[in-house]
Each structure stands twice: as C-alpha cells, then as structure tokens.
Amino acid sequence: MTLDKARKGQVIKIKSIANELIRVQAIRFGLSEGEVVVCREIVPAGPVVISRHKQEIAIGRSLARNIQVELC
Which residue ranges does the record assign to the Ferrous iron transporter FeoA-like domain (predicted)? Predict the structure, then answer.
C-alpha cells in the first residue's frame, strides 16, 4: 500500500521509494526506506501527517502516493 492510504494511528514501515526524485525529497524530511513512523492525521484533500522520533512531518499527497509502506 502507499502512504496516502494509511489510516490515522497506524504504525507503518517505509518499504520503498521507487522514484529517485521522490526519494531525495523524502531524505530531506529525514525519511528513508526501513524507517518506522506513525500516521498522525490524514487531512482531507491535504497532506498526510506522520510522526517520527517526536517530530511531526506533513507530506503532500502527491509525494505520499509514491511511498510504499507496510503495516507493522
């Protein structure tokens, strides 16, 4: 499944980021493959908010659609 399909409260692991440009953007946020994060909020028609190590990150839907995740 992709990150934009995650539900609030789910603990997820980033499985893969296929697109090189998207991977570079994710690394700027401090996200990489293998990282475990928590989905904090899904803003309707807006970003997906995740948390990692007490830091909340809002990821745009277009970016989230390109990040493959799995439930932990």
Answer: 1-71
